Automatic annotation (TrEMBL):
Residues 1-29, 685-723 are annotated as: Disordered. This is Transmembrane channel-like protein. It comes from Phoxinus phoxinus. InterPro entries: TMC, TMC_dom. One of its GO terms (cellular component) is plasma membrane.
Length: 723
């Protein structure tokens, strides 16, 4: 429309027909005159793809300007619908309004909404993604705590208060294992404060025999029955742990699906993102100056990331063959250096764990020895990723690729270091996998050293969680605040060169993943660990927010938050898989402790499941056994493979469709650019003609041209004046 009006202003249409064709549009000059291309709207006819639909067309999908859309909407409001469809339309509108109101009300209950928006405005989407990830873990741990409390903790407290203590089943043969039943961790009634503090820090003494650890649930090793009510604590304990892991997995998959959709829509890069950010990214509902400035800052940081990545892509594309080969050779060498550092770290963790488990001392020295594996793991998680980050700068990747690579290296270090710790513990508990050794006879585990090995593993996870929290608080108080004070009040060149610290997203995210993996690993042996982790993450939020605004400066190198959010959850999924392997190995392979826990009279923890299934009626038992047999698992596996192939093919088709639509959008953009260039050239030509001095014209020219158009009633070669 605007192009047609502009052309008419430059070349007005004559009042008589022209043999050169219509001049209505630039693209219609070479074609015969056609009817007007204005959009015609049939007020009564329904859309073509909605033959049987009684609902009005969606005005947002119609290619009309706002004035015409408003007129269409007014006509739709004036139409009187059929009575049968009026009720359906009103119901759908009422339900839609209810959903919008509910969504608006629930938005007020979003945890830390305003604080996270403020962080995103000041420090960009990358730092904001860390706090969104932290909020997700807080909610996940809180819901998991409710699950464990509802099925394990509260029933145990109720049954213990009512003195419902189970007895040893008569079918259990304890001949020759009487020594394995001895386990009495109850401390003395009177103890000094320092002993109380050491027990609180290390999880021993009064903490060892509490609801915090596995060993306290000893009295409930069979079904509790009273007045027709029965509750199987061992089965509830095991199934709660299983559903806890399943619940966390489902939550991660759902969140990964949402972040993956965002990454696919944005294309995983800056291509096509500028237009979406500039023209559709602004929230026109913002009214306060503070929120407007935060939104502008967020846009500025996102554009910085896009421009930086585009610059690096162009630079990498301009490299010669020799430069590319040398670059890849350098990256291979640096990766070998990183692997050597990580291997040395694993060796140190294994030796520290063995030394800590063999030494038996008390007091402060004993506390240091108990925390020795945690100290080595924490020190390695601080030093080695720092060296890897410096090495990654030499590899000359883009900002987002550097962050993701550092993330993968750090997660490999943290998760495998935790795996090395657990593997060392399993070797000592199971006598290096050979239960026929002297140390593992007759209890099938190393009883002299681990009278209740489940509680010992839970104590290690408890110490790792607590030590990680203490290190974070100590770093905040002893390192970050003093550094900010020195930088702000000292004008020497060294302090100004060091400057305030930057909030590095990758190490902080890995710290959260590591903490959550520790919680998953120890949840079976320390049921209250998710609740402790919830409190820890809440304190983390406020500590990190304080240090972010008080001690940190915006990062000089930003990265894209859309792809990073997906990688954060992917790394968290790796931690979940490691914890799941620990859970399966502990449940199916290692003999439970005879002296503690609800499974002490079972050969493995898993045995309580078939025992509970046998107590059901024959039909239910046969169904459950069939579900766990190969007759069901093999067809299920085949069906899953077929479904996976179908989804993969469907994803490929959708990807091709998206690529085709993107190419069409690019072609349309090129057409628009061509038309804009045509308009600019035409405008320049008109302005040039207007600036040229008017030359004296002959009378013949005046007679043959009217309003800058030729008079076709006369022939140029003949004299128009007959007389």
């Amino acid at each position: 429309m605007e192009l047609r009006e502009f052309n008419n202003q430059v070349h007005p249409t004559p009042d008589y027909p022209s043999p050169y064709g219509s001049q209505h549009s630039l693209r219609l000059r070479t074609v015969p005159p056609q009817e007007t291309s204005a959009v015609q709207f049939d007020w009564a006819s329904p859309p073509e793809d909605a033959e049987d639909s009684n609902e009005p067309p969606n005005l947002r999908e119609l290619p009309l300007h706002m004035g015409l859309k408003r007129a269409v909407w007014q006509v739709q409001q004036m139409k009187i619908p059929v009575v049968s469809s009026s009720w359906n339309i009103k119901q759908s509108q009422t339900f839609r309004r209810f959903c919008e109101v509910a969504k608006h009300v629930l938005s007020y209950f979003v945890l830390w909404k305003r604080g996270i928006q403020k962080i995103g405005g000041h420090f960009g989407g990358g730092v904001q993604s860390y706090f969104l990830f932290l909020r997700f873990l807080v909610i996940l741990n809180f819901l998991s705590s409710l699950l464990i409390a509802g099925f394990v903790l509260i029933p145990s407290i109720v049954f213990r208060s009512m003195n419902f203590n189970s007895t040893i089943p008569t079918t259990v043969n304890l001949t020759g294992v009487e020594i394995c039943l001895q386990y009495d961790p109850k401390p003395d009634t009177l103890m000094v404060f320092i002993t109380y503090f050491l027990d609180l820090i290390s999880g021993t003494g009064f903490m060892e025999y509490s609801y915090l650890f596995y060993g306290y649930y000893t009295n409930f090793n069979s079904m509790v029955e009273s007045n027709g009510f029965s509750y199987n604590i061992p089965l509830a304990y095991l199934l709660t742990a299983a559903f806890y892991f399943l619940f966390c997995f489902i939550c991660m998959i759902i969140r990964m699906g949402g972040t993956a959709r965002v990454a696919v829509v944005t294309g995983g890069g800056a291509t096509g993102g500028y237009s979406a950010l500039v023209f559709t990214g602004w929230d026109h509902g913002l009214q306060e100056d503070r929120t407007t400035k935060l939104k502008q800052s967020n846009f500025r940081y996102r554009l910085q990331v896009d421009l930086e990545e585009e610059r690096l892509k162009k630079k990498s594309a301009s490299l010669t063959l020799s430069q590319t080969v040398s670059l890849y050779a350098l990256r291979v060498f640096l990766n070998m250096v990183v692997l050597i550092l990580i291997g040395a770290t694993f060796y140190g963790i294994a030796k520290a764990t063995q030394f800590s488990q063999l030494m038996k001392t008390t007091g402060f020295k004993g506390l240091v020895l108990q925390y020795l594996p945690s100290m080595v793991i924490t020190a390695s998680n601080f030093v080695v990723p720092l060296l890897c980050d410096k090495i990654a700068l030499l590899e000359k990747y883009s900002a987002s690729t550097t962050v993701i690579l550092a993330l993968l290296r750090a997660v490999f270090l943290r998760l495998v270091s935790l795996g090395v710790l657990l593997y060392t513990l399993w070797e000592q508990i199971t006598c290096e996998g050979d239960i026929s050794k002297q140390n593992c006879i007759p209890c099938n585990y190393y009883y002299d050293e681990y009278k209740c090995w489940e509680t010992r593993v839970g104590q290690e996870m408890y110490k790792l969680t607590l030590f990680d929290f203490l290190i974070t608080i100590a770093t905040l108080i002893l390192v970050e605040f003093p550094r900010r004070i020195v930088v702000d009040h000292c004008s020497c060149k060294l302090t100004q060169w060091v400057g305030r610290q930057e909030f590095l997203v990758a190490p902080n995210v890995l710290a959260l993943v590591y903490s959550q993996t520790v919680v998953w690993t120890g949840a079976l042996f320390c049921p209250l660990l998710p609740f402790i982790n919830t409190i820890k993450f809440i304190l983390f939020y406020f500590c990190k927010k304080i240090t972010l605004f008080q001690n940190c400066q915006p990062a000089t190198r930003n990265f894209r938050s859309t792809t990073s959010n997906f990688f954060f959850l992917l790394v968290l999924l790796f931690g979940w898989m490691l914890a799941t392997m620990v859970l399966l190995y502990s449940v199916t392979k290692i003999h439970p402790s005879y002296g503690c826990g609800p499974f002490r009279f079972s050969p493995t923890m898993w045995e309580v499941v078939p025992q509970a299934a046998e107590m059901l009626n024959s039909t239910s038992a046969e169904f459950l056994f069939y579900m766990g047999s190969q007759k069901f698992s093999i067809p299920l596996f085949i069906f899953s493979c077929v479904l996976l192939c179908y989804v993969s093919a469907l994803t490929s088709v959708h990807g091709k469709s998206v690529a085709l639509l993107k190419s069409q959008c690019k072609l349309e953009q090129r057409d628009k650019q061509f038309l804009v260039r045509q308009i600019e050239e035409l405008n320049a030509t008109v302005q040039k003609e207007q600036r040229e001095p008017q030359q004296p014209q002959r009378e013949t020219d005046t007679a043959t041209r009217w309003n800058q158009h030729d008079n076709y009633a006369f022939d140029r070669d003949e004299d128009p004046r007959p007389y």
